[in-house]
Amino acid sequence: MEIKLKLNGRAVTAAVEADTTLFDLLREKGCYSVKCGCETSNCGLCTVFLDDVPVLSCSVLAARADGRAVTTLEGLQEEAADFVGFIADQGADQCGFCNPGFVMNTIALLRENPDPTDDEIRGYLAGNLCRCSGYEGQLRGIRAYLDSRKGKGAQNGN
Amino acid sequence: MMTIQNYVRAQSLQQAYELLTSNRRNRIVAGMLWLRQTGGSVNTAVDLCDLGLDTMEETDDAFVIGAMTPLRKLELHPGFAAYTGGAAARALGDIVGVQFRNLATVGGSVYGRFGFSDVLTLLLALDTEVELYGAGRMPLSQFAELPQTTRDLLVRIYIKKTPGTVAYRAVRIARTDFPVLTCAASRLDGKVRLCVGARPGKATVLDLTDAAGGLTPNTVQSLAEEAAKQIPTGSNSRGSAAYRSHLVRVLAQRTLSQVGGSGNGD
Amino acid sequence: MATENYRYVGHAMRKKDSMQLLLGKPVYTDDIVPRDALVVKLLRSPHASALVEEIDTSIALKVPGVVAVYTWKDVPKTRFAIAGQTYPEPSPYDRLILDRQLRFVGDPVAIIAAENEKAANKAMRLVKVKYKLLPAILDMHEALDNPVLVHPEEDWYPPCPVGGDNRRNLVASDVESNGDVDKVLADCDIVIDRTYHTRAFQQAMMETFRTYAEMDRYGRLHVISSTQIVFHCRRILSRALGIPKSRVRVEKPRIGGGFGAKQTAVCEVYPAFVTLKTGRPAELIYTREESQIAGSPRHEMEIRVRLGASSDGRIRALDLHTLSNTGAYGEHGPTTVGLSGHKSIPLYTGSLEAFRFAYDVVYTNLQPAGAYRGYGATQGIFAVESAVNELAERLGVDPTELRDRCMVREGMNMPAYYGEPAAACALDRCMAHCREMFDWEHRYPVRDMGNGKVRAAGVAMAMQGSCISSVDVGSATVKLSEDGTYNLIIGAADMGTGCDTILAQMAAECLDCPVENIAVFGADTDVSPYDSGSYASSTTYVTGKAVEKACNELKGQICRIAADLLGCAAEDTVFEGDRVRCAADGRTVSMEEVAYKSQVGNVHAAEVTATHSSPVSPPPFMVGMAEIELDKGTGEVKVLNYMAVVDCGIPVNPALARIQTEGGIVQGIGMTLTENVTYDHNGRPVESSLMQYKIPTRLDMGHLKVEFEHSHEPTGPFGAKSIGEIVINTPAPAIAHAIYRATGVWHRELPITPEDIAMSRPEETHRA
Lengths: 158, 266, 768
Fold this sequence. Notes:
The complex is a heterotrimer of chains A (about 160), B (about 270) and C (about 775). Chain B is of the alpha+beta class.
């Protein structure tokens, strides 16, 4: 079947099978930031936005995306670049394999809740597994980013 | 990986129902979770996503929840949070992750009648009804007992705003894992109910209205002991039957205390 | 010793690949290989022990898109080992690419190559196999001298004498001692005699095993693999496939985590074999299930500790026996077990009068084990540190103070550690520092929080090594580029740890230039200088020293070239980072001028390769403290705080050292509380997915705090030791200790589940 979707802002037409997952379609379309870490909807590595809502692309039929907007990290490079440097400063990127899913879901969190508490951050990102960092550095990085944003806001207010 | 021959977005409930009942291997697509790990083959996958069933409405006397409403919506609904006194967030917040709960649907959770379901446990403790296409409304407790083989099309869920309180508690080995045991207690309009899931079997309900006697610390203690004796438990990789029965007692005691007003559920 | 004197070493900085990784660029194996590669799948044994009686591939081969199906009849008959170890490997040669005898649930039966995944999966279901079921050994206690043999084959071959005998299901066995341990034990006021059990925990790196193979433009086998060991991998492939090493090239792109899993060539031989047979590019990606059931997890071990002490808390004797389960194949079996004693007993060098360490490593019909961060030390330290905590509790002595009396200290010689010296050891300072940071005085006492909740704390120490002494080899090539910048080429493998960056920091320090001026490349057997690979915590310590050597030699070469330009003698020149000065008259030439000169009429190589190996393996040391809240009703344990102080010599990059530590601690918390490994009655692993194998989420680990105590290791680069592995060793004993404090029950088996806690009762009262 043929589906039409908006992928990272661009209209895309794709021929898919009824059981093609959105994950497979996205990698076929060159969105290599989307990673697979499990087959059981547990790891969060394949997180993308479906109409701006973070979902697991391994658990969405490509056909469900017909007529909708899909966003991957390839389409959010500028918004991501804003804060990932703070993760890098902590060294919390580590192997990097979980990073795209983690970055996507952090963007979703901050769009939904621009000033989250540490517990809100942990809760929102609980579905993003990371085996390298021990999570604490990711939290420090997000916190440092939020602090810097507040600092900037204060400066702008002057 | 589940194989699927055809995919159809139903344009009406009637079309969906006809498709569902026309072939034994046709299936409704809800949250789509676990596609990759699930084997088997589906002839036609019938998607309800175009039918506007992904909304949750609060009326004067009920919450009306479309079958395609994501768990995340139920978790965040301010009215439902207020009505359940936080039990909703407690029951939903540990289910895998936000992305998962954005996909998993209330209808899928209820229809699946999974043993491990936090959702089913919570909703069974409330005055919940399901609406089935064609068959109309029936209490969730009745639906939960139907065999999984019926070819029903679940349309909506109604949670009546019966005045009262509900408490929820589950034990997990890791925070976002399947629960070892789930437990919800409610006192709604004087009726006291205890609902236990992940036994590991499907959630079961005990009506304790007559025995509750005001839910004093003493009655709660004996009700919890009694529940541990009555509610059948089994063993799986997350816990033995003996441990689960122990947990029934502990969690029943805590949740009943909470709805009785003598504990905070911890 | 002061790191502030260094400009780059000892300073936190971003990893060189950070932004690529964080912005999701295509840098991993499956991102960079051609889309039209054959998809390789493995049909796996459903039985723990069986013989392939008949196998029929004819129907499978008819599936459209299927290119080839290989069985045991098609593969070379030379046995090999897939453990990534220096030749001759201590691991036995006990594998074939496909064997007629199947030894665990998941052992490959057939290799399927197809144009796409669907066809490969379909063909897999259509391979007709008739199995002859054989009796299986599913309990390691029953393995030794069982008439059922896991490896009855005549051509089983151990390249090293490690005490193994396949006719006894024995992979390795040894005993060593110092002093008369029986006599000292008999003389002790108190003897703790306990047995501890740890399971085959999974590394569960986020990127599963995967390998791509193709024939390159010279007709050589070119393998791109997610591996920690490119050179060992080349040697393994050469032997397994029966082709010369000169026909094999192995490279690694970025790696999505390893933790030792990828120190074994778990999946490389299969796509390589397909490419060799078909001439076509081929890629094999393990599913998470395959990674969980046919990977290379930690060795299950049972360790009996007999600890003798005086009534005033001096640990006088340690007697360890370890039974290790290597599973169906012997990868890393003979070596992991050694660490269970060698990296636990020496912690008590300060008071120990005698020790004995004996072990047996046995085959079973379970998933073959391999290398996992900590490599046996983790298991041994759980046992010994738990026994020490039990001693302290029996004596009513503060367990940190008891350790102060007994621990190894700087300058001591460690008889239980191959007689090597603790030349740099800040363990005493780690303990004092951690005690204060953690507020041990107030957190150690058990606190009742009401509602059945109790707070309590526990402690543990740890050590590890910094390489395999006199074995591991690290090399580095440093070369000058036209603009005066450098290329650093290594054979070690950055698997997310940041070694590319750390080694560049060292090079920048030596060459007195910004870290940005050092471009790092690794690893590729055609390009990189030889390196054993990244394991045994060796990269910073061994390869780092090679970098230091190479840079220093390169400075000499640069001065020689500059001397030609300056018209003075090389001895009279001074290397000044961005220029070279003639000492006599002060004239200088820029590094760029030197670099261009190196390309014109020049006879001095503007590049140097240096190699290093160390006769010692200086241990890093660590203290970890856990505070938990335990629910006595449900048995749930919540880690509230985990604090640790590490002595890794000098942390070359403190941010990365801290993250290594935090990551290791959380893995340690996982194996203590949430990760389980069980089998059904057929020997099939139950926890075969991340749905069942629960690695910690960020809600499961509490708050972490990590700090460092510096020491200066004279044999290490800039005083550095290692960090990679030691960090996983303290959580299990520290949390088990805290659980005892909260409940009065010692749990001696991992993981410790809520059920274990809720359903157990305090043991016999202390019989002193």
